[in-house]
Amino acid sequence: QVQLVESGGGLVQAGDALRLSCQVSGRTVSRFVMGWFRQAPGKEREFVAAISRTGFSTYYADSVKGRFTISRDNAKNTVYLHMNSLTPEDTAVYYCAPDRLSGRALTDEHSRSENYDPWGQGTQVTVSS
């Protein structure tokens, strides 16, 4: 059974940094593109970042480009999201998931939440102003 556990969220001030982790069990993460998404109250789940199977390619939402960095450690079956210069607009529950596109090269298809499954329980990030 596949299980994803996100961690590392918390309450921080604007301008601070956080590192989120996504530990995957029951599936070899190196076979999949991995994505991070977030969902704020009353809003739809939105794409944040994706990383190719090897980690050599990454893809970011415009809203986080230059501030967030996605990385992975396939030996640890773990994916990370390094978040810098956080703003209140980054407040959301953050989720990770493996893609359903057979791990193929990153395209804009990887920005769509319907192309990922399953999902973890998420980790809350709250940024105060």
Task: Please tag this protein with its features.
six-stranded mixed beta sheet, mainly beta, four-stranded antiparallel beta sheet, 129 residues, globular
Characterise this structure.
The structure is a single chain. This protein has 129 residues and is mainly β. It has no helices and ten strands. The strands form two sheets. Strands 2-10-9-4-5-6 form a six-stranded mixed sheet, with no helix packed on it. Strand 7 and strand 8 (78-83) form a beta hairpin. It is globular. The N and C termini lie far apart (40 Å).
Main sheet attributes: strand count, strand direction, barrel closure: 6 strands, mixed
Q: Tell me the strand order in the biggest sheet.
A: 2-10-9-4-5-6
Structural class: mainly beta
The total of beta strands comes to 10
What distance lies between the first and last C-alpha atoms, to the nearest angstrom? Answer: 40 Å
Secondary structure: helix percent: under 10%
| Cα-atom radius of gyration | 13 Å
SSE map:
Blueprint: E1 3-7, E2 10-13, E3 18-25, E4 34-39, E5 46-51, E6 58-60, E7 68-73, E8 78-83, E9 92-98, E10 123-128
Parallel strand pairs: 2-10
Antiparallel strand pairs: 1-3, 3-8, 4-5, 4-9, 5-6, 7-8, 9-10
Quick structural gist:
The chain has no helices and 10 strands. The protein is mostly beta strands and 129 residues long. The protein is globular.
